[in-house]
């Protein structure tokens, strides 16, 4: 067979063989109604928030005439205690909340993956050292860390929160990746690569990592929800982002007073709904991804 | 033949599984009879449906399996009387009727001794479990029975071994314990699903000797599932060769080895390396790959790999022909012989 | 393989691969699993050397140690570089990388030997890229050549491993090992995971490839009948040691060591007319952590004497054809 025949053979094979797997996975995902719902909600909410922010909704200027006004045609979500439009605040705050969730979860996944890969593949002393580090981080209360950093830096801000979430959030991914590496390391194709004399980094990231990607993708997705909730919790007790930057948690902060909870339901219902809906959608999406990607469940 | 001589009579057993909303037939109209006190070997490659057949008889399959049969009859010999059990007609797979049969009448030995035992219980207790379930013996009496059986099965130093945990046993010893579990209620029929595939040859020889002893000395009936033709030659009285869910050939040991009829059986016998082959003797190969049961078309399942395949082989249903008494072959080469179902 | 001046390609001398057992908080070494415990043998160019033994006898570890996938604690493995023997246990990283082109391995489990996330094409291309074949055309030429050898169509390259059957996968694995043009192929149980009707295909294919490329095989398997079909010479191992080496016909016709005899007699033969008398061994292979003193086989041996319990038998040459046996019974110098 000539080289040309090989090439045409390759192309023919391409059409039949390789796409079928992707198609099958896609079909499986599309059949999962909850996951599809999650994906649609996540996309709509993210796009809505980003477009709103770019369009420049006014979330700062208080409407002095309408303090604490209930939802109306002028302010469809109502206004908060100092008269700012809640709809624009939820939209604008969504940008920050989603950004915090996505950024922290991606960054902590990267750190966790790299450390987990090193730990799982090499084993021995390096492994033990990284495990101890992760245990120290896990044992340290996040709240105390937040207050410490606020005290050291002297201001509350987005940056602090991001740094703290990332350095306290990588351990679960790390442990998962380490365990996956430990088990995949024993697979024969890794031995084959060693027998061909491939370099360690090539085996780690070229051979093993693609087989560990599915759980990493799933956990990164669900971690977005986790970090959004974390941020909301910290902001609610007043340790999160500074008041000037709205986030979903920050808006809820106003609902700390009992009179707001009882009299101005719209101030906490709308941001609360936004958080619940988004987190739920992310979790549905994560579950759907797990079903599609995880070979063990097939 | 009378019911007294036949312990298990299976007629037209079909098992299919539902997966991805598609029905896949795994076992197709399997019929056989097992004579009391003999060994039947069920031979075939992985995926040929031999394990599924036995699991269908024992009703061990999950909810996605559909089992239909004309008859699965088990004849128990109680004193002089023959009691017939219609296993196929029992409705609940795990109901009291089926459970009363498993253990005292039929029992099964699985392939992997490592995962057949529960690691957190002492082996003695695991063996005694069946006795406590089916008889009214006290724990002490049960222990005595277990000790007796351990001695019979050649487990050394049974008094101390009975209180050990599975991880303290080697593979061969674990398989003996698994056999003890199967034997403790003194069943008439033992189904062995590849009992030695996970074991070394010297240990395999020990276990096979043990099973043969049970059959010869105690009159047990054994169904041995295997893919090893050597074991078949040593153990079996009758042989049932399966391919892609069908019995392709059934007959006595001599029928199968001396008057091999089906092309698949022939190929199977000639393609396995045996000791003492001449230097330049080539093994015969069976071309092609084992087909996927979901994409099978009509006609003979072996047609695509068969050297003697003709146009006829790819059409319709291939019946079985009886080429001599008790020797049935599902192949159109023998269509001048009487058809049997 | 009868001519006297056969060229040696591998010289293994007193090779030991031990795995330490660590216990306690301080990870003190409390013992060693002596998987390979003093193995010496020579492999000739172009032959198939079969290595048999039961599970736990160290045959797989031996194969991996010869590949340097496991590090030995003692002993030498010398490889013939055009007449000059170099000890690969002392190789630098660069020398080792070069050695990987000389010796390749085919593993037992074809189902996990191909990366499930990668197309066959990628799995085949990577070793070639690593070994410095830069032009895509040249790489595809090599792939095409090796695929032809194992009778697999080139358009299958664009598929994923799960689309292949076990036999096809094992053929792909053999093809991939051949890409770097090795001189020696170490086959670790290459057919034991395959269906019986597929085994013969792979075995015959391996024989054909050997003839075509003048390859040397080290064929490791637990099934003596498969090894006997493939091998010119057979090494029988028991508990990390060699008990007998003989050419395959001699081993079958006149085995010397009691363990070899028992192994031969334990194999069921698909022949209903010549049923042989079974010699059934008692007991099981002892743990490689606490080996029996003296001859490792003495507690199962029907011919065991007091000397066997104390003294480890050395390897003796028996007869003309390089028949080597490690048993006191054949030690003529002392008795």
From TrEMBL, chain A:
Any GO BP annotation: transmembrane transport
Classification via InterPro entries: BP-dependent_transpt_permease, MetI-like, MetI-like_sf, OppC_N
Membrane topology reported for the UniProt record: Multi-pass membrane protein
Residues spanning the membrane: 34-57, 91-124, 136-154, 160-177, 208-229, 265-286
This protein's record includes keyword Transport: yes
CDD domains in UniProt: TM_PBP2
Pfam families registered for this protein in UniProt: BPD_transp_1, OppC_N
Gene3D superfamilies: MetI-like (1.10.3720.10)
ABC transmembrane type-1 domain mapped to chain residues: 98-286
Protein localization: Cell membrane
Keywords, in A-Z order: Cell membrane, Membrane, Transmembrane, Transmembrane helix, Transport
GO cellular component annotations of the record: plasma membrane
Superkingdom assignment: Bacteria
Family named by the database record: Belongs to the binding-protein-dependent transport system permease family.
Protein name from the UniProt record: Peptide/nickel transport system permease protein
UniProt organism field: Anaerosporobacter mobilis DSM 15930
Species classification: Bacteria, Bacillati, Bacillota, Clostridia, Lachnospirales
Automatic annotation (TrEMBL), chain B:
Keyword ATP-binding: yes
Record localization: Cell membrane
Main location: membrane
Example GO biological process: peptide transport
GO molecular function, one term: ATP binding
Topological category with respect to the lipid bilayer: Peripheral membrane protein
ABC transporter domain mapped to chain residues: 8-269
Recorded GO CC terms: plasma membrane
Top-rank lineage group of the source organism: Bacteria
SMART domains, A to Z: AAA
Keyword NADP: no
Cited Pfam families: ABC_tran (PF00005), oligo_HPY (PF08352)
Record-linked SUPFAM superfamilies: P-loop containing nucleoside triphosphate hydrolases
Alphabetized UniProt keyword annotations: ATP-binding, Cell membrane, Membrane, Nucleotide-binding, Transport
Signal peptide feature range: none
Family from the record: Belongs to the ABC transporter superfamily.
Protein name: Peptide/nickel transport system ATP-binding protein
Organism of this sequence: Anaerosporobacter mobilis DSM 15930
From TrEMBL, chain C:
PROSITE patterns documented for this protein: ABC_TRANSPORTER_1, ABC_TRANSPORTER_2
Gene Ontology MF terms in the entry: ATP binding; ATP hydrolysis activity
Keyword hit for Lyase: no
Domain called ABC transporter: residue spans: 21-264
InterPro entries hit by this protein: AAA+_ATPase, ABC_transp_ATP-bind, ABC_transporter-like_ATP-bd, ABC_transporter-like_CS, Oligopep_ABC_C, P-loop_NTPase
Keyword Nucleotide-binding: yes
Pfam families given in the database record: ABC_tran, oligo_HPY
SUPFAM superfamilies in alphabetical order: P-loop containing nucleoside triphosphate hydrolases
BP terms from Gene Ontology: peptide transport; transmembrane transport
Keywords from the named record: ATP-binding, Nucleotide-binding, Transport
Family statement drawn from the similarity comment of this UniProt entry: Belongs to the ABC transporter superfamily.
NCBIfam families according to UniProt: oligo_HPY (TIGR01727), PRK11308.1 (NF008453)
Protein name in UniProt: Oligopeptide transport system ATP-binding protein
Species name: Anaerosporobacter mobilis DSM 15930
Upper taxonomic lineage: Bacteria, Bacillati, Bacillota, Clostridia, Lachnospirales
